[in-house]
Write a structure and sequence with these properties.
Elements (H helix, E strand, L loop, with lengths): L11 E4 L4 H12 L3 E6 L13 E2 L2 E2 H6 L4 E4 L5 H12 L3 E4 L5 H5 L3 H7 L4 E4 L16 H8 L1 H4 L11 H24 L4 E3 L7 H14 L4 H4 L8 E5 L5 E5 L3 H11 L13 H14 L4 H10 L4 E3 L8 H4 L5 E3 L7 E3 L22 H7 L4 H8 L7
Parallel strand pairs: 1-2, 1-6, 2-5, 6-7, 7-8
Antiparallel strand pairs: 3-4, 9-10, 10-11, 12-13
Helix pairs in contact: 1-8, 3-16, 15-16
Length: about 400
């Protein structure tokens, strides 16, 4: 744990978002010391709660992202739900939402309405696409955004559906950066602001270079040829045990060292070639690497100081050596802590203060603390309440 006081200690956040972008943003703010209230629909809460595997009745993904948060239930768009939201955001510094554009306004709790009663409030929206353009209210998940931005094509035509949420996670991290910038701005102006962080922005940092190459020359450059798997010095190879290794020997000193290690001096000048000769160099390396297990090649390369690594899964104990400073023990409602590499900002982050909350666990304490009457609190818990 970082010994310094949390940099966001005392910051109050109300998070009404759903799914991964908001969860990543929430984890970032929680890890920096913010107090976060997860505002959820009483009819089940954030869908991540129900995503298996479950521990203590809560999906472990939700439990990891929301460790240390508090949960309040209220159905937005109802009189009671809107009253609860207003009471919470009147005392908050940040409000996060991911509803389709216009939904909160239709319910009478648009971000600007909330800021009218709390001018210091920073409101954060996580739509699919930028507002004010054709298709801005289109429905999109991570895969749709990867397809629309060109990132899915960059992953390779023979690639399967990505098994990580590239746009979702990056959007959450960018939103955290935007919140910190808005807080810095508020320190000098005393006023909050609205932050819009569309899901599509999570894909864009990954395709900026290919887009720039194409704009300048009509073709994709380094990301296609140099680091796209066509050159022998930079690619993934299958080894004798069926496992794969990643070879990142772009610099001449590394490529020459690799050629010496595997006994292929005839390839010294061919490591970065993207032509028929380069293809033959790739094929030659593939032949050599098939003669020994992946970890044998890794150990030999490590002894020679070369950037060659085994392609591992999340369950591989090999990661537990170099990743150990970035692991966190996430408290769980049931069973032992989850040991996961959540410390993305190790110089600033603090350990979770407790497990993720049960749905609605803090409804009474949080709303009473905000001055909400008992009958309104009871209505917030009512799963059958009609929208107002």
């Amino acid at each position: 744990m970082n010994a310094a006081p949390p940099v966001l200690a005392g910051l109050r956040v109300v998070d009404a978002s759903r799914m991964i972008p908001g969860a990543v943003l929430a984890r970032a703010l929680l890890s920096l010391g913010a107090d976060l209230v997860k505002l959820e629909d009483p009819r089940g809460g954030d869908p991540m709660r129900a995503m298996a595997p479950l521990r203590g009745g809560i999906g472990v993904g939700f439990a990891t992202y929301y460790a240390g948060a508090q949960s309040v239930v209220a159905r937005l768009g109802t009189l009671a739900g809107n009253a609860a939201l207003g009471a919470l955001t009147d005392r908050a510094d940040v409000f996060i939402e991911s509803f389709r554009p216009g939904t909160l306004a239709r319910w009478g709790v648009a971000p600007e309405t909330l800021r009218a009663t709390n001018p210091r409030l920073i409101t954060v929206s996580l739509p699919g696409f930028p507002g004010g353009v054709v298709g801005s209210d289109d429905i999109a998940h991570d895969l749709n955004v990867l397809a629309r931005t060109g990132l899915l094509e960059r992953l390779g035509e023979d690639a399967n559906t990505p098994r990580v949420q590239l746009a979702d996670v990056t959007t959450g991290l960018l939103a955290a950066q935007a919140v910190l910038a808005a807080l810095l701005r508020r320190a000098s102006t005393t006023l909050g602001m609205h932050v819009e962080q569309p899901l599509c922005t999570g894909a864009l940092p990954h395709v900026v270079w290919p887009w720039a190459d194409h704009q300048a020359s009509g073709a994709v450059g380094a990301s296609e040829h140099l680091i796209g798997g066509r050159c022998a010095a930079y690619g993934v190879y299958r080894c004798g045990d069926g496992r794969r290794i990643a070879v990142g020997c772009l610099e001449p000193k590394f490529w020459h060292g690799l050629c010496a290690l595997i006994g292929t001096p005839e390839l010294l000048e061919h490591g970065l070639r993207d032509d028929a000769i380069g293809a033959r160099a790739v094929a030659r390396l593939a032949e050599v690497f098939e003669t020994a297990p992946a970890r044998t090649w890794r150990d030999r390369a490590a002894a020679a100081g070369l950037p060659v690594d085994v392609v591992v899964g999340v369950d591989d104990p090999l990661q537990h050596t170099w990743l150990s400073p970035l692991f966190e023990h996430v408290p769980m409602l049931e069973g032992p802590p989850l040991v996961v590499p959540t410390r993305a900002l190790p110089s600033f982050e603090n350990a979770p203060t407790g497990p993720a909350p049960v749905l609605g666990e803090h409804t009474e304490t949080q709303l009473r603390d905000c001055g909400v009457q008992d009958d309104v609190i009871a209505a917030c818990r009512d799963v059958s309440t009609a929208r107002g």
